[in-house]
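Just curious. Protein, please.
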Amino acid sequence: MNNKIDRIKELIEILNEASLAYYQESREIMPNIEYDKLYDELCNLEKETGTVFSNSPTINVGYEVLSDLPKEAHPSKMLSLDKTKDVDALKAWLNDHEGVLSWKLDGLTIVLTYEEGKLVKAVTRGNGEVGEVITNNAKVFTNLPLNIDFKGRLVIRGEAVISYEDFEKINETIDEESAKYKNPRNLCSGSVRQLNNEVTAQRNVKFYGFTLVSAEGIEFQKRTQQMDWLEKQGFAVVYRQIVIGDTIKAAVKDFSEKIESNPVPSDGLVLIYNDIAYGESLGKTSKFPRDAIAFKWKDELKETTLKEIEWSASRTGLINPVAIFEPVELEGTTVSRASVHNISVMRELQLGIGDIISVYKANMIIPQIAENHTKSNNISIPCTCPVCGKETVIKDENGVQTLFCTNEECLAKHIKRLALFVSRDAMNIEGLSEMTIEKLVSEGMVKELADLFSLENHKEAFVKLDGFGEKSFDNLIESAEKAKNTTPERLLYSLGIPGIGKANARLIAKFAKNKWEKIQSLTFEELTTIEGIGDVMAENFVKFFNNEDNQKMVRDLLQVLVLDEHEEEVKDSLSGKIFVITGSLNNFENRDALKKKIELAGGKVSGSVSSKTSFLINNDTSSTSGKNKKAKELGIPIIDEEKIIEMLEM
């Protein structure tokens, strides 16, 4: 008996430490699967011994309120839900009643109060008894109505969440690995509980209602009636389905198939009786209401063999270990890789090539290693970066060891430079977003700019990337092949030299008579004679082309590119005339193409209509747009595309 009591105390300490890290410190010290396993063990021991300590996570709910935000007690304790991982248990629980099945969103629970049609208060769940007042922060949630048609007192509960896409974008802006958020839930918690709601506003937090607590003067018989009514008031409400015993399994399966496309994180489902009066008549226990139950996905574990550890470099300089294993089927998809997060986790798992490991999908989405059964611990930490080949260093941040590249010029750290290189006004390689570029770099397919034009050598690896396939590969190769034919002006702009934008690249190319050899050998003195090129730009230009690594990069590019060095004839037919372009074009690829033609004829292009404007170009000359109106007020001629083509040919 004493051994069991000791184990209970040990489990309480472990689980409370994990909860503290997860809910308050935005850290994750154990995977969900491990937490659930220990929690279930604790529940069983408490039932077996009849002993429950006051600090047990089985009777305490949520995080303790520790911030400087105002505190407020809830009118009644907000309870958590009992849970199951068994679909048959859900069916038995529902019995012959009608239920509503919905997402259990993984964010921060908020209670909203509206009076006279206006949001007057927002309080977090807190520890279930006392929450934090975050009204000002709630007012900047991107999808929350601040005013509604209903004028009575309304209280609604819901979940504040941050999408996976916004989570990735925000983490990309954080350089320190230890400061990065571990998951969208942690980011949402930190964003909602800010003292300055400007920070909240930048995080794109959304709110989804899941319970109508009360609506003054209105009685509802069904939960679905409440949900429908809330949507009519302008609230986003969790996705839901009406179920009965015979349809519950099919509904759970349907939700499981929607997980991959669900933009916001979910850690399971909630089943509640649709009949409100019946559900309330069941009462509650000290911790759980009896009218609802949570369903958590039963993690599908598969054993496989670890083939290798791939080291993936990122724009922050961090090099993450990624486990590559024999492919297994998990939750209906083939999985062959999982992030190991950092060196500390890798060493804790004692990973080695050939080890037998168990893998699963956290919340049925993110592949994770659950356990290493053989623990050969034979992985070597690379001394050089997989992208640039320069020296690496192990950093220790708050007890977490991570691997970093020391080279500030490593291509992995310059994803935005690559994004500029492939952009429309530069090399114009379609189908390469920043996220795609980062994947190509981290997978070792792109180690320098010239590699973007030889991706056909990596077809097998490319088509295996998440979200890609044969068609996207073929489109990318076709676009890259087309982009090989370019001009010195475009190439110069694409290199991302500080201060050398499109206009300055055009001026420099024109000065050098469109000859690349002349462009890259221009001196500081020559550059500063060009109108519009100042000392700082000239210094940046010369410094760039004097750098040996940059020289090699350009040489390699010139091996694959075909430069049109034909010097375009400069006319003066439009000299002294200022044009504004608006609306769609029929004969030019885009406005920049027409702008270039006008400038080659000696004209200038402005972005707004003023008294100095000579002509407004708009194919819809009778449009009532703002620019057309202003042009008419100022007596400025409005011409169509045919007219400007005629003027260009004069």
Q: What stands out?
A: The mean pLDDT is 84. The two ends are 101 Å apart (CA to CA).
